[in-house]
Design goal:
This protein has 308 residues and is mostly helical. 75% of the residues lie in helices and 3% in strands. It contains 11 helices and 3 strands; from the N terminus they run αβααβαααβααααα. Strands 2-1-3 form a 3-stranded mixed beta sheet. The longest helix is centred in the middle third of the chain and has 34 residues.
């Protein structure tokens, strides 16, 4: 009840991705086709890893969780955006807005930490191969998985707690197609300088530090691999290259959105669109297309069900 009494605004009007009906229709069709093709692929990755006894290594365990996180993340923004494309009035209630914001940062924060865990896994596998089975045992993998989910929750609950303390009593038009911290904060009826600073520290600084740490770790791994003469050199380089691609897709837009003062830029909506709708579904698929073991297992799984 205290939350309701602290704000007069009960709903927000989403101004959407674009005001052009033709562009909205085009984006609607493209996103729908993209979902119908890519989303089942993400679930196929999860089923393949779960059903193949040969894919029990920590690398595939974390890949399956990446596919699950990305598939879940894609349900936060895109379905409502597709519905809004067909609606004249794009409205979201205050509670639904806060809920969307919570899960956006909960799953997004968890995925960022998962990429850190996957980098640690590759570092141990390549730079400390004799200790790999000891360090990355099943118990440690589940502990790391629990830690990243907890980390994502803590990151998100801080965001939500700061926003719930803000009064909203005036304008209610969000300059976006979903609820996110930068746009919601700008509608508060109070000075938000301190809150913005805390938000940038919580989201932007942590994102930037994780990104730089991941690039540094993979640089060490690549240097180590290039200096070796093992027969698994090309495979290790391919895996690391794929991880770096996913890191750039994940952290690039996030850094652009959260590591600067909350001011509006022309590219904000486009970057947010790719960050919340397109890239999450692409990440596991990109990884799988460069992983021969998963591709082979997927083909066997499909052939068994097609010919049965």
């Amino acid at each position: 009840m205290e939350i309701e009494n602290s704000t007069v605004v009960k709903e927000f009007i989403l101004l959407g991705l674009t005001q052009s009906q033709n562009i909205q229709l085009l984006v609607f069709v493209l996103v729908l086709i993209f979902y119908l093709i890519i989303l089942p692929g993400n679930f196929l990755i999860i089923v393949t890893i779960k059903s193949d006894p040969a894919l029990t290594a920590p690398l595939y365990f974390f890949l399956g969780n990446l596919a699950f996180l990305d598939a879940s993340y894609s349900f936060i923004v895109a379905p409502r955006m597709l519905v809004d494309f067909l609606s004249e009035k794009k409205v979201i209630s205050y509670r639904d807005c806060i809920t969307q914001l919570f899960f956006l940062h909960f799953l997004g924060g968890g995925e960022g930490l998962l990429l850190v865990v996957m980098a640690f896994d590759r570092y141990i596998a390549i730079c400390r191969p004799l200790h790999y089975s000891t360090v990355m045992n099943p118990r440690a993998c589940y502990a790391l998985l629990l830690a990243l989910w907890l980390g994502g929750f803590i990151h998100s609950i801080i965001q939500v707690a700061l926003i719930l303390r803000l009064p909203f009593c005036g304008p209610n038009q969000l300059e976006n197609f979903f609820c996110d911290v930068p746009q919601v904060i700008k509608l508060a009826c109070t000075d938000t300088f301190v809150v913005e600073l805390l938000m940038v520290s919580n989201s932007g600084l942590l994102t930037l530090l994780c990104f730089l740490g991941l690039l540094a770790s993979y640089s060490v791994i690549v240097c180590r691999v290039r200096g070796s003469s093992s027969e698994g050199k090309n495979k290790a380089l391919s895996t690391c290259t794929t991880h770096v691609i996913i890191i750039l897709l994940m952290f690039g837009p996030a850094i652009f959105i959260y590591t600067r003062p909350f001011k509006t830029f022309p590219a904000d909506k486009v970057v947010s669109f790719f960050h919340t709708v397109i890239f999450p579904l692409m990440n596991p698929v990109i990884y799988t297309l460069r992983n021969q073991e998963v591709k082979s297992s997927m083909k066997r799984l499909l052939s068994r069900h097609v010919f049965c």
